[in-house]
Design the sequence.
């Protein structure tokens, strides 16, 4: 049951002096089971694009179909298809409005016309899935929770609808690092355990790279790149920079090591992948190997590309990696 955008254009304020075209001739197909990341600078059209996926916005021209049904229609079938696409906004706590957490999560299932028993079952299952104990949280006010917990409630409200697609627009905005990890763990769990197709909008390429298996890059209302993240990072960095984004820091580091002569792969997405690749390039297959045999350093594996540093520079082997430090007379001492 794919989502298909065919020649979609959207103009805000059409016919007024303030009209602005936010999407220009978008052609995309999102298949079931994908984890799609959408990235772009502010104003590139990311949020406008995803609001078309469940009918919050209707195209000025073109069509958006779910399972072959035009969701801009007013038929019961179109309404049913719109329910297949759940949406979590940039600040999902703004979606909360009921007196208790259980009532808030139950709002969507109730509007589907489900029985009271089925609604209660879905609420309990959704709360359990996002890690909120029913007996502890069901009767609490959603407005007395932390930011991360409020977003879990918002996600639970969408999960309770049993959507086939989940659209998340900057779901980690404003959260601390711990809260960000909690939310992303829930998103990954939804994708893997429930098989929900995820469309994640973010300005953070590092987040996108470690979760998505497909990347769409937006610029000036158009999809300028669409493909596998690793291929885009390795082959289209200049295009990314031209549209105001860049490859993840780990990709920059690996490319820098390759330029210095270290024979490492640049097909890594996470820091752990990068660490293992570096160890392998020095003949040590694992981190444990590096701990037991720290003699081979990164500096030994890298061919020199510039004159030797000053006599005050010393190479130090540390857990299989090399660091440079300087004596008291040097500058920029690195620990």
Sequence:
């Amino acid at each position: 049951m794919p989502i298909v955008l065919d020649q979609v254009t959207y103009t805000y304020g059409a016919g007024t002096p303030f009209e602005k075209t936010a999407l220009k001739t978008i052609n995309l197909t999102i298949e079931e089971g994908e984890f799609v990341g959408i990235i772009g600078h502010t104003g590139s059209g990311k949020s406008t694009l995803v609001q078309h996926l469940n009918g919050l916005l209707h195209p000025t021209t073109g069509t958006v179909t779910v399972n072959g049904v035009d969701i801009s229609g007013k038929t019961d079938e179109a309404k049913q298809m719109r329910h297949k696409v759940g949406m979590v906004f940039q600040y999902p706590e703004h979606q909360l409005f009921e007196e208790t957490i259980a009532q808030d999560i139950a709002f969507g299932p109730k509007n589907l016309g489900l029985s009271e028993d089925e609604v209660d079952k879905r609420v309990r299952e959704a709360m359990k899935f996002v890690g909120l104990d029913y007996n502890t949280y069901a009767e609490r006010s959603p407005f007395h929770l932390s930011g991360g917990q409020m977003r879990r409630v918002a996600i639970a409200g969408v999960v309770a609808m049993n959507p086939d697609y989940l659209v998340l627009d900057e779901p980690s905005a404003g959260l601390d690092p711990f809260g960000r990890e909690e939310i992303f763990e829930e998103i990954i769990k939804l994708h893997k355990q429930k098989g929900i197709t995820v469309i994640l909008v973010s300005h953070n390429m590092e987040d996108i790279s470690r979760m998505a298996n497909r990347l769409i890059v937006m610029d000036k209302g158009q999809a300028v790149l669409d493909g596998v993240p690793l291929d885009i990072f390795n082959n289209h960095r200049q295009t990314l920079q031209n549209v105001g984004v860049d490859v993840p820091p780990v990709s920059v580091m690996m490319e820098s090591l390759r330029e210095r002569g270290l024979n490492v792969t640049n097909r890594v997405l996470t820091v752990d992948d990068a660490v293992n690749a570096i160890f392998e390039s020095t003949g040590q297959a694992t981190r444990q190997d590096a701990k037991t045999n720290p003699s081979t350093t990164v500096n030994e594996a890298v061919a020199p590309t510039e004159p030797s540093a000053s006599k005050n520079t010393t190479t130090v082997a540390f857990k299989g990696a090399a660091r440079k430090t300087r004596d008291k007379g040097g500058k920029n001492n690195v620990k």
The chain has two domains: 34-59+69-242, 249-326. Residues 303-335 have pLDDT under 50 and may be disordered.
